[in-house]
Amino acid sequence: MTQQSLADAIGVSKQVMHKIINGNKAINVTEISAISTALGTTVDELLTPSGEAKQSDFHDCLQHVQNQHTREKLLLLVEVMQEILFLEEVVHAKHSPESKR
């Protein structure tokens, strides 16, 4: 998929997509949802690192984000996602058959 086709799929210009990809534009919930749909995946799969390399890949990518404000927002987003995943685990554990014994 090209930047242009992804931009078209989520309803932004190629320039805006370029800024998103290069970390020069903070991405909002609507855009991340549209990107995941366009790529045929879920937001969770798109944002959740899988495997040991993904965490270091994220930090490597973060090094290339030039805008400090965007970098801080991305780090905050990761913290929020980690909290959500933790809360989901707590809820699932609470409602699992093993917890009702």
TrEMBL record:
Pfam families per record = HTH_3
Q: Which InterPro entries match?
A: Cro/C1-type_HTH (IPR001387), Lambda_DNA-bd_dom_sf (IPR010982)
Query: Which Gene3D superfamilies does this UniProt record tie to the protein?
Result: lambda repressor-like DNA-binding domains
Q: Identify the residues that the record assigns to the HTH cro/C1-type domain, covering every copy.
A: 1-46
Give a GO molecular function annotation for the protein.
DNA binding
Q: What is this protein called?
A: HTH cro/C1-type domain-containing protein
Species of origin reads bioreactor metagenome
